[in-house]
Amino acid sequence: MDRADLRYAAYARERVAEMPPPADPEAFALAYNLLHLAYLLVTDLETRIHRPRGWTLAGFRLMFKLWLLGPTQPVRLAEISAMSRSAMTNAVNTLERDGLVERRAVPDDKRAVAVALTAKGERMVREAFTEQTLREQEWFAALEASERQRLTDLLTHVVAARPENAG
Questions:
Q1: What gap in Å lies between CA 41 and CA 134, rounded to an integer?
Q2: CA-CA-CA-CA torsion for 133, 137, 139, 145, nearest 10 degrees?
Q3: Distance of CA 76 to the CA centre of its chain
Q4: What is the pLDDT of residue 167?
Q5: Which of 8, 85, 104, 112 is the 20 to 30 Å CA partner of 142?
Q6: 88-117: string of b/e by CB count within 10 Å (b at 16+)?
Q7: What is the pLDDT of residue 67?
């Protein structure tokens, strides 16, 4: 397939290969293609599934975590989402305003609060999850099951070994 974005990526890698150290064409190509895929995937999922609901992909991901975990304290949500506490507060505020999540007192700690899906939020996250799953299957249909697993394993390895002070 002759695509301008793929031609550019190959061209950029060739140009980086001509540069003196510490230029690293392999690392450049990997990061470039991973970022390009992430951009395309996020844009596609937001455009097709989440924006029509008035959400971002980040908002959906937060609701998905609550769907799986149940009521969770915002500090824990921020930690597992690699988000700052203020970004988490803003996301929760938006979802709460839209009636999708609610804050609840934590029974054992009068000062603590947990965030939980409302009935409306749970219904909507289930619907969006179904649509997103089908779209993810389309995105990765070009890979065999073993390739998908290997790619998942490799990406998990990179995330686990990320540099100090990264996210």
A1: 13
A2: 140
A3: 16
A4: 62
A5: 8
A6: beebbebbeebebbbeeeeeeeeeeebbbb
A7: 98
Q: Which tokens hold the place of 59?
A: 């908002």
Look at residue 107 in the predicted model and tell me its pLDDT: 85
- Give the model's pLDDT for residue 83: 87
The percent helix, strand, coil of the chain (3-state, each to 5) is 70, 10, 20
Local structure of 72: helix, strand or coil:
strand
Q: Give the side-chain half-sphere CA count within 13 A for 128.
A: 28
Helix axes 74-81, 57-69, angle to 10 degrees: 120
Here the tokens at position 42 are 């996020």
pLDDT tens-place string over residues 123-142: 999 999 999 999 999 999 99
What is the model's pLDDT at position 78? 92
Contacts for 104 with CB less than 8 Å, ≥ 6 apart = 71, 113, 114, 115, 116
Question: Which regions of the chain are under pLDDT 70?
Answer: 1, 167
Q: How many whole angstroms from its chain centre is CA 26?
A: 24
C-beta neighbour count of 50 within 10 angstroms: 20
pLDDT of res. 1: 60
Beta carbons of 1 and 10 less than 8 angstroms apart: no
